Amino acid sequence: MQVWHIEMWLKAMKNLMMKFCIMVVGMQEKFDKYWSEYSDIIVIAAVFDPRLKFSMLQYCFDTLDASISKFKIEHVRKKLKKLFEVYKESKGNCN
Question: What is the DSSP letter of 64?
């Protein structure tokens, strides 16, 4: 959630005042360098958080870029399915 808040603030500030524009553009470049692709682990942790789940993830992705939100949600679902399959296989090998 904090990463999303930072990105939303940067987008809002870029459009708010020209005085801050140069500073915000530099901040946005650094943000994009490290966070252009949200880490799968961070996103999966957000889904596991009982306060957030997929509905909050959907909201965050929609507000950032609605055109690719559906793709990102599906990507997370596939990663979660793969994670559970690996877990299921590992549990079968322990018995």
Answer: H
Residue 65: both structure tokens together: 């870029």
| Diameter over CA atoms, the chain | 64
Tell whether the model's pLDDT for residue 17 goes beyond 70: no
What are 46's two structure tokens?
Answer: 């957000």
pLDDT of residue 95 exceeding 60, the answer is no
pTM, full prediction: 0.65
- Residue in the structure block whose two tokens are 């990105």: 7
Please state, in angstroms and rounded to a whole number, the distance separating the CA atoms of residues 6 and 32.
Answer: 11
- Looking at residue 15, its pLDDT comes to 67
- Read out DSSP for 63-74? HHHHHHHHHHHH
Q: Are 69 and 62 in contact (CB under 8 A)?
A: yes
The gap from C-alpha 56 to its chain's centroid, in whole angstroms, comes to: 10
Region 65-77 average pLDDT: 92
By the 8 A CB rule, do 15 and 34 touch?
Answer: no
